Amino acid sequence: FVNPDEETVSTYEAKRKEFEDYKAELKTLKTAESVSTDGHKVLLVANIGSPNDIEAIKQNGAEGVGLFRTEFLYMESDELPTEDSQYEAYKTVLENVNGPVVVRTMDIGGDKKLKALPVPEEMNPFLGVRAIRLCFQREEVFRTQLRALLRASVYGDLKIMFPMIATVDEFKKAKGILLDEKAKLVAEGVKVSDSIEVGIMIEIPAAAMLADQFAKEVDFMSIGTNDLIQYSMAADRMNEQVSYLYQPYNPSILRLINNVIKAAHAEGKWAGMCGEMAGDQKAVPLLVGMGLDEFSMSATSVLRTRSLMKKLDTAKMEEYANRALTECSTMEEVLELSKEYVNFD
Ligand code: PEP
Ligand code: MG
């Protein structure tokens, strides 16, 4: 505005003041717990890609790591990372993060191609030899990663998570390989933590539907909505032409998420989310209402989510989520319904 009139100036002064107050509030929330108005506590943790992200965790008051995307360690060079170099990376993160650290075993394949680990050309790479499937094909590479993780486990609160699990057998097989490596290390006299939780990512609708059975086997489930939405909607997450189908608040997606959370709780396990949706301010009230325990997001989203959390009442959010799950047929209807429960301004 050139030569703004008094009214414009005072409007923007008020906005500035509001923003300054908000920033000051966020600062005070850095060391606060993540609680709703009625005292319900959740965990707000961060997604990271390397030990370089530790500073961001501290700066933004994240309570741990909900997703360490380890594939970046593999993508850095033309050669596969050694057991020792991986061990150092995991140890650094575990030593420097005050809280749980969920490490996802490598998620190579799909769009993430590696020179050091070539996979044959596929018609549909996102439906092909990706993540845990590649780990089973190249078991020696998987075992190397697991050994590095197990050796580092004594330095913090490590949790290991397998990506792209479709069947209970896949989980059992992956866990079996982990336990085999653990036994070998222990026999070699290497110290390994006895309290490592082992869980899975829920990214495939088949696993979300069968969450009650998975919950009997795993220690936790973390919902990867980036892929879960892609696979549920049959819409490539890299293809802009079908990006309108990326609908986190579509009741179909909400039902899958709710199914996973309720199934985890029925077996006394915890449910987290590490896809983009976990830090989406419009989704958080629904997720609180469905009872999600752990929200993992980019570190820069943690404080504003903690601020939002403080304004939410669990019982009210439960009612909102239940109505969204049972009464709505479109994402637009869910967002319309949200106006009765949340003020997003
Ligand atoms: C996800 O699919 O939601 C997820 C967190 O994994 P990535 O985005 O790395 O595939
Ligand atoms: Mg994924």
In words, what does this structure look like?
47% of the residues lie in helices and 12% in strands. The protein is built from 15 helices and eight strands. It has helices at 6-28, 54-59, 71-75, 83-96, 132-137, 139-152, 168-187, 205-209, 211-217, 225-233, 251-266, 284-290, 302-310, 314-327, 331-338; strands at 43-48, 65-69, 100-104, 157-162, 197-202, 220-223, 270-273, 294-298. Strands 1-2-3-4-5-6-7-8 form an eight-stranded parallel barrel, surrounded by four helices. The chain is globular, with a radius of gyration of 21 Å. Bound molecules: phosphoenolpyruvate and magnesium ion (MG).
Low-confidence stretches: none
Distance between the termini: 24 Å
Main sheet: strands, sense, barrel: 8 strands, parallel, barrel
Count of helices? 15
Oligomer state equals: single chain
- Tell me the strand percentage band: 5-15%
Structural class: alpha/beta
- Percentage of helical residues? 40-55%
What is the number of E strands? Answer: 8
Small ligands present: phosphoenolpyruvate, magnesium ion
Mean pLDDT: 96
